[in-house]
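so my prof wants the structure for this chain in the tokens format not the other one, which i didnt know existed until like an hour ago. anyway here's the sequence
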Amino acid sequence: MKLTCISDTHTRHRDLELPGGEVLIHSGDFMSSGYNVGEVHDFLEWFENQDYEHKILIAGNHDRLFEDNPALADDIVDMYASNIHYLQDSSVVIDGVKFYGSPWTLDFCNWAFRLSTRQQAVDIWHKVPEDTDVLITHGPAYGSLDRIVHPVNDTASKDHLGDRDLRNRIETLNPKVHICGHIHSSQGILDGYGEITTHINASCLDESYGYGNEQDYIEWEIK
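here's what i got, hopefully its the right format
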């Protein structure tokens, strides 16, 4: 099964040209401020029309509507094609492969889906089923594609910004793939180096919110 992975498009999805295929995954932050319903419709219209058999979507910290008004968000998603799977701490199985998606990130600037306490993080990641093959989260795990590699100013953190409790859960479950975004300039693939799980940061936009990363999308095949 071949996956096409994108993330952090921030309303610039129509600039992408995707190859089409089996499964398209967006790991959050398709909106800007997160309050404009029109942005959701525009994204889902584009997402629906991409040439993939299945499309999987999670929210990110910019997608406030999905936390503030989940009933409205669900109603909007339901207006579009049935092969769009919106995951919020939930799973879908496609051709025997189990995908689990969750939008939560470490507490950051009063955005959406914030993990405000260590216990909240432990509880959230404990929900990930043991038989998960592909884990999709908005934020990265600690130590894996979680640093601002190309900062836009001198105040940017040089630290690892990923979630330690997410890292612990991944090391317990060992899913085949973990797909994330959030830290724009850490786009890339981490495969090997002692890791059982392949980590993919699929951020499309760079730290300046332009298409300055090495790739516009990332493809990966599950074997």
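also thought this was worth mentioning. The domain at 2-221 is CATH 3.60.21.10 (Purple Acid Phosphatase; chain A, domain 2).
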